[in-house]
Write a structure and sequence with these properties.
single chain; 224 residues; five-stranded antiparallel sheet; 17% helix; globular; binds glyoxylic acid; binds manganese (II) ion
């Protein structure tokens, strides 16, 4: 039987191509490896990069790797009855480039950590004290929530809008952890109604399908 010049394009050939392509797809299931043990951030450096430049190793001290900023109860005397103390690269430069950070969140009775999202990190948290309604919405607008008590954990996938509300009788406390040294936070009410310069009223009235007076009232509450 004559062999055609294209007979090499066999199923085996295509299978080999597919295997080569699949094996060359990088695996993104873990943080990228660091190129050094640490890089204590010089958060006052004149130049900023994607992260902060490292403090010279000769100037690094043990204190760069310890932080007691989350030990004290925050002041919850504010309109939300909540206080969030960040332990991120800005307050704890030893976290620079390590891909992790934590917050402490204190709640007065009825206090609310208002709906917000973290553009750069997944959040997980553990309730230390009290009783909290913890919830987030998906991009398909499905709302997942549960009331949690001490010792119970939650997770909020990266970028999804979430909140916690103290539904117990006393104070509540949670610690949260992030897979970014600076997760960022977009708090919906302030990002939309307290932006500088302000988002035009016609954008907000059209987006929320309300009259201008409602938008003005919201802006008056959240402008900074
Ligand atoms: C809680 O949602 C937090 O961002 O710490
Ligand atoms: Mn959060």
């Amino acid at each position: 039987m004559a062999i055609s010049p294209t007979s090499w394009i066999s199923p085996l050939f295509w299978l080999t191509i597919v295997l080569i392509l699949v094996s060359s797809i990088p695996c993104y299931s873990a943080d990228p490896d660091l190129l050094q043990d640490f890089c204590v951030g010089d958060v006052k450096a004149a130049i900023t990069i994607n992260g902060f430049p490292c403090k010279p190793a000769s100037e690094v001290t043990p204190d760069d790797f310890f932080f007691d900023g989350l030990s004290k109860e925050g002041n919850t005397s504010n309109r939300y009855g909540m206080s969030l103390t960040p332990g991120n690269v800005l307050s704890f430069p030893g976290l620079n480039t390590l891909g992790i950070s934590m917050n402490r969140v204190d709640f007065a009775p009825g206090g609310l950590n208002p709906p917000h999202s973290h553009p750069r990190a997944t959040e997980s948290g553990v309730v230390i004290k009290g009783r909290l309604l913890v919830g987030f919405t998906t991009t398909s607008n499905v709302f997942h929530s549960k009331v949690l008590t001490a010792g119970q954990m939650f997770v909020v996938p990266k970028g999804l809008v979430h909140f916690q509300k103290n539904v117990g009788k006393g104070k509540a406390l949670i610690y949260t952890a992030f897979n970014s040294h600076l997760p960022g936070a977009a708090i919906l009410a302030t990002t939309l109604f307290g932006a500088t310069p302000a988002i035009p009223n016609d954008v907000l009235t059209q987006a929320f399908q309300v009259e201008e007076e409602v938008v003005n009232e919201m802006k008056a509450k959240f402008s900074t």
